[in-house]
Amino acid sequence: MSAATQAPxxxxxxxxxxxxxxxxxxxxxxxxxxxxxxxxxxxxxxxxYQASTSLQTGSLEEGFKVxxxxxxxxxxxxxxxPQFVRSVVFAAVxxxxxxxxxYPLAYLIAFKAGRWRNVVMILVIAPFFTSFLIRTLAWKTIxxxxxxxxxxxxxxxxxxxxxxIGLTEGTRVLATPLAVVCGLTYNFLPFMILPLYTCLERIxxxxxxxxxxxxxxxxxxFRKVTFxxxxxxxxxxxxxxxxxxxxxxxNAELLGSTDQKMIGNVIQxxxxxxxxxxxxxxxxxxxxxxxxxxxxxxxxxxGTEDLV
Length: 308
Description:
Mean pLDDT: 87
Number of helices: 15
């Protein structure tokens, strides 16, 4: 039989794709429902209520009414901008100190601790078993005027230098910017170490060996291999440290004086003492917007190519 008379090949059968039942398709959304409800009840609803409060006028005796008084934001910012600036500066310095102190420790745990890794990790997270308030109060004893720490700093004439640059006052550390920064650094240091350790632990040690085989010095290996690969941990650690430190008020309240009040102290005072709810809500929104703007800018600029 010639090729011209041969019958054309039959087309392959088309397999019918059956869609899963509607009930199965809705399972992921049902699983997300508890989390969505939690966010709506405990985040979205309070946020809307705070926005409404910030636009109210009145007093506690007469009651507060929504009058869309947007000028409350400008008045709050004009009066309390020094506390905003102080909060950002204190939080930034504490974050930088946490990074300087936490990175070597996280590196040690990830690559050098060996069988002592779990022990060191327990020591890192051990402060979480104590109340935040108690840990901060302990620093009042550590930095007491007649304590060994202040005595050693005086003997080494370190307080003369810190006093000259405005971090301390004379021969005392309590009720100074240095005390507040020390408290912030200590309390939020674990939030820096844990993301760094998690990221460093995932780095393959063979990459360090390969860098050594290519005659890279340890400093070059760290700059070209270790640090770029640990950037996700650096970004996560700095965010987890800076954001709560900027809104903290416990350290400034217990370790500082009226000259070291942060914006968190102002908000707490407006809510609980002055009872000026619109101003407190406006300050809260300004702080949230400022932190959101800084975090967005930081995330955009925190790529490996930009920082290394």
